[in-house]
Amino acid sequence: MRKKHRRLFIALFFFTPFVVDLDAVTVLTTGGRSFERVTVEKETETEIEIVDKDGVVYRIRKDRIKQITPDAKEGPAEFTTDESVPTGAVKKDSPAESLPEHSFLLSQSVSNDGAFQGVDLFGERQARRNGTKYKDFYQAYFMTTSVDLLGLPKQFKLGLTVMDPLVDRSNTDADNRFQSTPGGPDQSYLINQSLATGTLQYDPNQVKTRKEKNGLFDYLFTRAMYEHETKMGAFSAGFLFINANDPIYVMRGYWVIGWRPPFLQWLNPQFSANNKMLNDYGGVFQGTHNYRLSLSHEFFKGETFRITPSLVIGYADVNDNIDRKKGFSDVSPRLQFDYGKFFFALNAMYRATPALVDNELYTPSAGVYPDTNPNDGKTTDPSKVYGYKNQFIVNYLSSISPNEFVRRGLIEHYQQQHIVHFIFFYNIGYTIRI
């Protein structure tokens, strides 16, 4: 390389702007990671944004870049068979080369629990199923599979996520009652009468312990977003649909709008609003809103080993159309470690306003007395409701109560617990392209 050309290349690399006029470049980071056949789309004082052939966007800090080199240019264009065509020299069609190198970005992970906008997705349902106390760490293991479509124009994002429980998928009898229908009135007294009289007073084919609809079910999240960049930042809009294989859950649909401001890029701030629009649960949640603020920063960008702390804060404008409560639905910190294609993440969800889930829709009440106080931050403890031990304690409390007011207070004190504020869970998995 001539000295003049060498000095020009060194100036292009070490001084801003970076080599933004090249059609295709190879970026080599100080950690040895290489991004080949990428284009530089955007740069700031501290970062550059590159896009690969699949349309995947990467942001890399400039101090982590070791070298940027132009890719070898293609040879001269081939002529068509008819050289008299007035279009001039054109290259023969190569449909295979026009396709992205990969079709999907696949990510799979295993976790012990999951959360969405302040709602526990698996652990609390598992507690009700197994008759155990609500707690902050569950073993409701499930596998998450996320697929994002590659090769789309940069503005379009399309993907889906499936959550498949690995435990407690089957239904079971959680209330230990003899019933003629699942969830029907307790007819255990017929058993006692038959034992006392020696005469069968019920149909054993009808009155028996029955399984409830309480198996952990699969979730399907479908998302489609469009993003448009302006001098005021990047604006996005799209849809998020959530399906579950439980007939009473139906589907939740959200109209999502977002904004990523052009400042504080080190923290990667993003604002979004999830606006409920579908009419499930008889329209209880229709028209509710959840405003989200997320902050994150990836340390050691471009390196094989990376650390990304993040924080998401959610505020529910109206959490349902019956209680119409407002407040912070969740404060969710996350710490993720990446090594190549593998990752491990520690997560927490803090319910800053537990009253948002203090109702029958989120934490069903099955105690002797219904939970009629939606503002005390308490709910029925699933482990204190069913079984002979609990029935004995309830009968004892009723026998020593001088009146109904005292009886209710004693039984509620025994059967209720505080709604769990913190819920912890982890993810371990990998991400590849196919």
Automatic annotation (TrEMBL):
Alphabetized UniProt keyword annotations: Signal
Keyword Signal: yes
Region listing for Disordered, in residue ranges: 73-95
Signal peptide: 1-19
Domain of life from the UniProt record: Bacteria
Annotated protein name in UniProt: Porin
Species of the source: Leptospira fluminis
